[in-house]
Every structure is written in C-alpha cells, then in structure tokens.
C-alpha cells in the first residue's frame, strides 16, 4: 500500500524533509499529498515548492474565528485523501474536528523521551533545557500518536541520545534532531509494512 501523508509544519520542516528524502530515494512507499503550514514564511513551504508538492497556508489569520481553522485543516486533509497526518514541528494544537476525523492516525515527533519533558510549553529549545536541568544521562526522540493533550498519546518509537559533558541545550538539540530524522520515516515504513496498524487506539 502506498501511504498518503499529510504534513503539518510551522517552521524549518527538516523532519518533513527527511520523510520526503526517503520517499524520493524509494525506501518509503508513500507520497506527501498535502503540506499545511500556519506560517506563510516557513521553510516547510519553501521545501514544498522545491519538491513540487501541494501546500496550503492555513492559519488563524487566513481563517479567523473559533473553529474556522480546524474546519479548513480538516477539509483540506480529507480532500487530499490523507491516510496519516504527520505533525512535523507544528506549533498549533490540532482542533477537535480534525482530531476526531483522523483519531489514531495523527502522529507527532517530540525532541525528548516522553513522558518526561513533554506538555504545554515544551517546544523548541525548552525540552533540551529541561533535560539538562534534570541532570538526565540521556535524552532522545519520541514518535507518538496525538490525542487531546500535548505530547501525550501512545508512544510508537523512541531513540535515545546520550547527554555529553559540556552539552548545551543547542548541542543536545542538534544531536536529537539527527535521530528524529531517522525514526519518523522508520515509523511510517512500519505503517506501510503493516507492522504498525492504524488507527492506533488513543
Ligand atoms: C523538532 O525538534 C520537532 O521534534 C519539534 O519541532 C522541531 C521541528 O523541526 N516538534 P523541523 O521543523 O522539523 O526542522
């Protein structure tokens, strides 16, 4: 089965790029059917253009009002025939309509070993600051299924990264990001191969 992936991204889109690379080199039997970004100047949109992939800028600005953005995201994903929704550095909370329509089929990647160092506010550099402040010996990357709580649904895969002497949040972030680029595509390959059955119960 060729998996139809819808991506939501707010910033650089390097996780999305890693998935596109695996599709283009033939090692992931999938296609990116839509890229949605709430940020019109995101690297994700630049990458979409570079690869000739369909994209939409949908945000609180293009869709003001309580549920308008949720409805627009939902409708765009459905219209694109999305099998699985991949959050790749998406800074908005997923709305109820989208969550219910794709329940168990929305994945997120988090730059720490959940359940520690997750939740509201744990984005960007903050999880790495939190890991160092806790004195943890290791950090890592987590791919999980999205539910209504931040960084909360069932974990599908983790990959650890040792914390090194002299690490700063930025050096740790870089090493974790390199692992993120590996495991997101691995999880999607497992979905293609039927090793992970979607929807996952949340
Ligand atoms: C990644 O660290 C991801 O785990 C987090 O946001 C960052 C996004 O990076 N959710 P990129 O946009 O994929 O480069």
Could you state the CATH homologous superfamily of the domain at 1-103?
Formyl transferase, N-terminal domain
| Biggest beta sheet summary | 7 strands, mixed
CATH topology of the domain at 1-103: Rossmann fold
Secondary structure class reads: alpha/beta
Strand order of the largest sheet: 3-2-1-4-5-6-7
Assess the beta-strand content as a share of residues: 15-25%
Percentage of helical residues? Answer: 25-40%
* Helix and strand pattern: EHEHEHEHEHEEH
What is the CA–CA distance across the termini?
24 Å
Contiguous runs where pLDDT drops below 50 for at least 5 residues: none
**Dominant shape:** globular
CATH class of the domain at 1-103, please?
Alpha Beta
Structure description:
The chain has 202 residues and is α/β, with parallel strands linked by helices. The protein has a domain at 1-103: Formyl transferase, N-terminal domain (Rossmann fold), CATH 3.40.50. Helix content is 35%, strand content 21%. The protein has a seven-stranded mixed β-sheet, with helices on both faces. α4 (96-101) links the parallel β4 (84-87) and β5. It is globular. The two termini are 24 Å apart. The chain binds 5-O-phosphono-beta-D-ribofuranosylamine.
Task: Break the fold down into its secondary structure elements and pairings.
Blueprint: E1 3-8, H1 14-24, E2 30-37, H2 43-50, E3 55-57, H3 68-79, E4 84-87, H4 96-101, E5 106-110, H5 126-134, E6 138-145, E7 155-162, H6 169-192
Parallel strand pairs: 1-2, 1-4, 2-3, 4-5
Antiparallel strand pairs: 5-6, 6-7
Helix pairs in contact: 1-6, 5-6
């Amino acid at each position: 089965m060729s998996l139809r992936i819808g991506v939501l991204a707010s910033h650089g889109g390097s996780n999305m790029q890693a998935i596109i690379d695996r599709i283009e080199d033939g090692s992931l039997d999938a296609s990116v059917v839509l890229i949605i970004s709430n940020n019109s100047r995101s690297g994700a949109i630049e990458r979409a253009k570079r690869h000739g992939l369909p994209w939409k800028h949908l945000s609180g600005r293009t869709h003001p009002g309580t549920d308008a953005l949720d409805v627009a995201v939902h409708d765009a994903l459905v219209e694109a025939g999305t099998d699985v929704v991949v959050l790749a550095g998406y800074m908005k909370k997923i709305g109820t309509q989208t969550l219910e329509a794709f329940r168990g089929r929305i994945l997120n990647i988090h730059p720490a070993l959940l359940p520690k160092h997750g939740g509201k506010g744990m984005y960007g550099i903050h999880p790495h600051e939190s890991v160092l402040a806790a004195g943890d010996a290791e950090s890592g990357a987590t791919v999980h299924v999205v539910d209504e709580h931040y960084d909360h649904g069932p974990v599908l895969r983790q990959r650890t990264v040792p914390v090194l002497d002299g690490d700063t949040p930025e050096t740790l972030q870089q090493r974790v990001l390199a692992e993120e680029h590996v495991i997101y595509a691995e999880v999607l390959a497992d979905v293609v191969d039927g090793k992970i059955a979607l929807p996952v119960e949340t």
